[in-house]
Write a structure and sequence with these properties.
The structure holds 2 protein chains of 2 kinds. Chain A is an all-beta fold. Chain A has no helices and 9 strands. At the A-B interface, strand 4 of A face strand 4, strand 5, strand 9 and strand 10 of B.
Chain lengths: 112, 117
């Protein structure tokens, strides 16, 4: 079973920041927080991952609480093309456990 | 990022026939690939782990004789749905991690939509 809890759906206005929360209260010390998104009828796309420090790349920022029990994915300027299901996943980094266990994710709808 | 490609993107087959889906890592070698299945409005469910040069590992409840997996090379894994039935209609997705990046990111194929009629 997935070890994360996310809201089922969220709306965001185009051009505004989208903040997607995720709870992972049972995360283990060796597990990273990964975020993927899936646009309709496509394979999942990697967004970002982190262990305990906040991370930023060209797509998004990841804010992880100090106790690592929750995190927030931030899309700074959402566009219509960001409409997708966003999955928060906890997993060890690479190694023998390469598979990812997907929960139900958050369906983000970006509206004009 | 690394590229994982699936073929075909979609396929329609008659009930009772077999269908083969290919998953290729285009610019890296993958000793392990993963096969997922996704039914409408549901999340991805891991079906099996494909290991180059050895037998695949199947998740509980997945019939290994129905879903044949072959990982013949470091860049190709195939999933064959044998004697397909309408309930096998689903979106099949493969993934692999790129060892060049320390296996930090899993890359996914674009998926194959199978419809059994």
């Amino acid at each position: 079973d997935a070890k994360t809890t996310q809201p089922t759906s969220m709306d965001c206005a185009e051009g505004r920041a989208a903040n997607l929360p995720c709870n992972h209260s049972t995360i283990s010390g060796n597990e990273y927080v990964y975020w993927y998104r899936q646009i309709h009828s496509q394979g999942p796309q990697y967004i970002i991952h982190g262990l305990k420090n906040n991370e930023t790349n060209e797509m998004a920022s990841l804010i992880i609480t100090e106790d690592r029990k929750s995190s927030t994915l931030i899309l700074p300027h959402a566009t219509l093309r960001d409409t997708a299901v966003y999955y928060c996943i906890v997993s060890p980094l690479g190694g023998s456990q390469g598979n990812l266990i997907f929960g139900k994710g958050t369906k983000l709808s970006v509206k004009p | 990022g690394a590229v994982v490609s699936q073929h075909p993107s979609w396929v329609i087959c008659k009930s009772g026939t077999s269908v083969k889906i290919e998953c290729r890592s285009l610019d890296f070698q993958a000793t392990t690939m993963f096969w997922y299945r996704q039914f409408p409005k549901q999340s991805l469910m891991l079906m099996a782990t494909s290991n180059e040069g050895s037998k695949a590992t199947y998740e509980q409840g997945v019939e290994k004789d129905k879903f044949l997996i072959n990982h013949a090379s470091l860049t190709l894994s195939t999933l064959t749905v044998t004697s397909a039935h309408p309930e096998d209609s689903s979106f099949y997705i493969c993934s692999a991690r790129d060892p060049r990046s320390g296996n930090t990111e899993a890359f996914f194929g674009q998926g194959t939509r199978l419809t059994v009629v």
